[in-house]
């Protein structure tokens, strides 16, 4: 019976109870997930969360302590890196400086003994829109162009899975945003499975079909970017993915379709459909109420105006304003001492509310969310890089 060629394996990528320990430190903790074939999947998290260690185990550069890695039905857990249908694109490009761009792209094909490489190389150069510089050396290209060459060199081998390890980290902000769109276009055209490791929320949300937010070796939450942003299930996800206002409250009433919550600034109504996992609806239960800064309406306080009838609100005083061009960021202190961040779109250049003004903040209940109150309210807000070792 002929032996199966692992390098030709295809299908979904499966990580089954994958664990990696370095002595007493568990970098990846019993991780299980399925990445559908042809999808753009992002592992997002701060340094030290285990995302790069996961990537290295898939590539074969790191051996798992326990668990299994499969592509389709093929078990690749113990295979050498060069025997896996996997290629990696690194942040530093790793191009051969003495070779032309064309020879760099053709390198993997020629090494595998593929005879007619010209058309495949031409197609790859067309894909990255760099056919016109095929005879140049890497040093003659910009950083963004070099990154596209590294991508073409990996794609031309048609791996089952393409791993991207912080691929845009060395680029400046404007170029990085251009490359985000380019990467998504290329992935859509070639239809390969891309797994992108990044700490950049914008990168993950711009490109990925599915985002897995990692923290301390586990996946805190996984789903479509809009799902994670609009409905975070933990304080870490709420704080790490974008910005959130979180404040502690307790349940006053939990019957029906709504929760009635109370904190030091008053009471709030929240739909139960906006509850995160493990939230108790028992009277007196501790919760965290969350609302994104851009979901809040801010207006000068009119003492004679009635409270909004269909929403939540709190009054406060503007402590700080920051003009950001498309929006203005406000910091508002409530009577109970909470600081609430508000992003207001700049529709009127003369409409900025001054510091010390009394304001009313309001938002629709469906725009907020409720989390389990036993969590650290600051989880995901500040990460100390000196306290972390493995990324």
What does this 3D model show about the protein?
The chain has 391 residues and is α+β, with helices and mostly antiparallel strands. The protein folds into two domains: 6-230, P-loop containing nucleotide triphosphate hydrolases (Rossmann fold), CATH 3.40.50.300; 243-372, OB fold (Dihydrolipoamide Acetyltransferase, E2P). 20% of the residues lie in helices and 33% in strands. The strands form four sheets. Strands 6-7-8-3-9-10 form a six-stranded mixed beta sheet, with helices on both faces. It is elongated, with a radius of gyration of 25 Å.
Specify the overall morphology: elongated
Give the helix/strand class.
alpha+beta
CATH superfamily of the largest domain: P-loop containing nucleotide triphosphate hydrolases
* Nearest-integer average pLDDT: 90
- The H-and-E topology, N to C, reads as EEEHEEEHHHEHEHEEHHEEEEEEEEEE
Defining traits:
2 domains, disordered C terminus, Rossmann fold, OB fold (Dihydrolipoamide Acetyltransferase, E2P), 6-stranded mixed beta sheet, 20% helix, alpha+beta, 5-stranded antiparallel beta sheet, 391 residues
Summarize the model shown.
With 391 residues, the protein is an alpha+beta fold. Helix content is 20%, strand content 33%. Helix 3 crosses helix 4 (143-155).
């Amino acid at each position: 019976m002929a032996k199966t060629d692992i390098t030709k394996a295809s299908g979904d990528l499966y990580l089954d109870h994958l664990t990696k320990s370095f002595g007493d430190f568990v970098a990846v903790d019993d991780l299980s997930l399925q990445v559908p074939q042809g999808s753009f999947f992002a592992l997002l998290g701060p340094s030290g969360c285990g995302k790069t260690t996961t990537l290295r185990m898939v590539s074969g550069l790191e051996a798992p302590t326990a668990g299994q890695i499969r592509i389709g039905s093929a078990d690749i857990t113990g295979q050498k890196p060069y025997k896996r249908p996997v290629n990696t694109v690194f942040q530093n490009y790793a191009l051969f400086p003495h070779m032309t761009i064309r020879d760099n792209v053709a390198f993997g094909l020629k090494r595998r003994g593929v005879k007619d490489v010209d058309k495949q190389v031409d197609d790859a150069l067309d894909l990255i829109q760099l056919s016109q510089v095929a005879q140049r050396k890497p040093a003659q290209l910009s950083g963004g162009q070099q990154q596209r060459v590294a991508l073409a060199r990996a794609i031309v081998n048609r791996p089952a899975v393409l791993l991207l390890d912080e691929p845009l980290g060395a680029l400046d902000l404007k170029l990085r945003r251009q490359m985000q769109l380019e990467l998504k276009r290329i992935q859509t055209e070639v239809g390969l499975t891309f797994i992108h490791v990044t700490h950049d929320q914008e990168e993950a949300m711009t490109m990925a079909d599915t985002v897995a937010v990692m923290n301390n070796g586990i996946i805190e939450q996984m789903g479509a970017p809009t799902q994670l942003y609009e409905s975070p299930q933990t304080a870490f996800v709420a704080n790490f993915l974008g910005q959130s206002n979180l404040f502690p409250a307790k349940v006053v009433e939990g019957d029906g379709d709504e929760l009635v919550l109370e904190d030091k600034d008053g009471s709030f109504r929240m739909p139960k459909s906006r509850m995160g996992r493990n939230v108790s609806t028992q009277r007196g239960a501790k919760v965290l109420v969350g609302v994104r800064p851009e979901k809040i309406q801010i207006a000068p306080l009119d003492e004679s105006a009635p409270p909004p009838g269909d929403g939540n609100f709190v009054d406060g005083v503007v402590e700080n304003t920051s003009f950001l061009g498309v929006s203005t960021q406000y910091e508002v202190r409530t009577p109970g001492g909470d600081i609430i961040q508000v992003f207001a779109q700049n529709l009127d250049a003369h409409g900025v509310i001054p510091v010390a003004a009394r304001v009313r903040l309001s938002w629709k209940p469906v725009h907020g969310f409720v989390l389990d109150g036993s969590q650290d309210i600051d989880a995901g807000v500040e990460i100390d890089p000196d306290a972390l070792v493995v990324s």
